[in-house]
């Protein structure tokens, strides 16, 4: 028997607020990342294009962060990536989130290396705040659009290679033999990032070595994240088609969506399918969905309290969304998410503890089912000799539904 504590109640209110304002936190984080990108690009834009985007004095102060040879290439790369990925954050892209975390971490490390002329704590604090806000918000950046991921991955690879090639070219006299043209710089970077390492060109100064460390680190992370967001999902989708694995085994419209697979959910699924209804089940665990007993069930793996998961399951075309988890607080979260769909849909919430009944009603589901409460009432009526028939059961159920309707 699960009970909503005061802390869980606060989480419920918080999630209701977050669901109601779907722009949070991706929009503030996107704006903050774009501002950080402009701050990195400001001295470069001032020096090359004459654009004073943050004020001359401020741009000059930013220009003191790193050595002039590294300034243009390092800050340009970081700034360009943050600006590009800020759009991805706005679109809640998981690839953009991962890239921003890595780039901001790299920017912080760069400011603390021997390349920095002086430490600007205000800048470190600003980047640190963005990083600390990004990390706990990872669950909000859950979109894995392959086309969008490919676009951001391509942009990341282009910026990375531009940073590496231009850096090797500008630091050319710090290598043996010296790198005197862009073609040689490109060759050297490709050999370095791919870990071939012929050894025909080597760095001879600490500055060049630190630069190569950044290239290798960023190269591994950007390539890994890009592959993970683009090629691997595409390969898995193709493999599922070849092996006959199903992603969707039915057309998701005019159907029921059951969130969770508790005992109540399992029995409800069986009764609905026996009556010829189409049912999609949302499960949190991918391992659970691989159980052979679910081979003929249309399963969506994800968080049922996330609006995108409900959309994938066809929530806007469903007859009803049934929150039948064993956790009353999670059932409330599912109802809140369902109410944010573009089209209204009926909702059913299961209540496992009678003490949580009023809390569940506050999220206004279309129907409330409390099997534990109903079962105890029917058992008491039977033991005390009261009349128990189908009309009595329906009166109890419809009585709960009426209380919810009155609230609406």
From TrEMBL:
Keywords: Membrane, Transmembrane, Transmembrane helix. Residues 253-375 form the RCK N-terminal domain. The chain crosses the membrane at residues 21-42, 70-90, 95-114, 120-138, 150-172, 178-198, 210-236. GO terms for cellular component: plasma membrane. It is found in: Cell membrane. PROSITE patterns: RCK_N (PS51201). One of its GO terms (biological process) is potassium ion transport. Pfam families: Ion_trans_2, TrkA_N. It is a multi-pass membrane protein. PANTHER family: POTASSIUM CHANNEL PROTEIN 2-RELATED-RELATED (PTHR43833), VOLTAGE-GATED POTASSIUM CHANNEL KCH (PTHR43833:SF11). This is RCK N-terminal domain-containing protein. The lineage of its organism: Bacteria, Pseudomonadati, Pseudomonadota, Gammaproteobacteria, Methylococcales.
């Amino acid at each position: 028997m699960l009970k909503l504590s005061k802390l869980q109640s606060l989480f419920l209110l918080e999630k209701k607020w977050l669901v109601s304002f779907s722009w949070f936190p991706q929009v503030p984080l996107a704006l903050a990342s774009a501002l950080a990108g402009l701050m990195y690009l400001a001295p470069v834009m001032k020096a090359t294009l004459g654009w004073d985007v943050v004020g001359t004095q401020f741009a000059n102060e930013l220009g003191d962060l790193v050595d002039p040879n590294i300034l243009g290439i390092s800050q340009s790369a970081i700034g360009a990536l943050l600006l590009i990925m800020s759009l991805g954050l706005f679109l809640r892209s998981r690839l953009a989130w991962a890239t921003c975390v890595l780039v901001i971490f790299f920017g912080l490390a760069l400011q603390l290396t021997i390349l920095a002329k002086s430490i600007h704590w205000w800048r470190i604090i600003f980047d640190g705040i963005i990083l600390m806000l990004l990390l706990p918000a990872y669950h909000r950046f859950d979109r894995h659009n392959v086309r969008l991921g490919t676009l951001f991955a391509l942009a990341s690879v282009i910026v990375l290679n531009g940073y590496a090639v231009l850096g090797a070219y500008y630091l050319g006299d710090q290598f043996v033999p010296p790198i005197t043209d862009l073609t040689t710089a490109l060759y050297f970077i490709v050999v370095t990032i791919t870990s071939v390492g012929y050894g025909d060109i080597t760095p001879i100064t600490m500055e060049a070595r630190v630069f190569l460390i950044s290239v290798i680190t960023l190269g591994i992370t950007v390539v890994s994240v890009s592959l993970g967001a683009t090629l691997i999902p595409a390969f898995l989708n193709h493999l599922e088609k070849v092996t006959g694995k199903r992603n969707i085994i039915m057309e998701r419209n005019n159907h029921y969506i059951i969130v969770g697979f508790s005992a109540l959910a399992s029995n409800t699924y069986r009764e609905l399918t026996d009556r010829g209804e189409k049912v999609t089940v949302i499960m949190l665990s991918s391992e659970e969905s691989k159980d052979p007993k679910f081979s003929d069930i249309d399963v969506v793996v994800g968080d049922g309290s996330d609006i995108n998961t409900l959309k994938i399951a066809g929530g806007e075309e469903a007859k009803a969304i049934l929150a039948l988890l064993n956790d009353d607080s999670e059932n409330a979260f599912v109802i809140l998410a369902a109410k944010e769909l573009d089209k209204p849909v009926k909702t059913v919430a299961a209540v496992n503890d009678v003490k949580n009944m009023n809390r569940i009603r506050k999220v206004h589901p279309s129907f409330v089912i409390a099997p534990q409460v109903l079962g105890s009432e029917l058992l008491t009526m039977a033991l005390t000799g009261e009349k128990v028939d189908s009309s009595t059961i329906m009166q109890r159920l419809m009585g709960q539904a009426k209380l919810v309707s009155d609230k609406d």
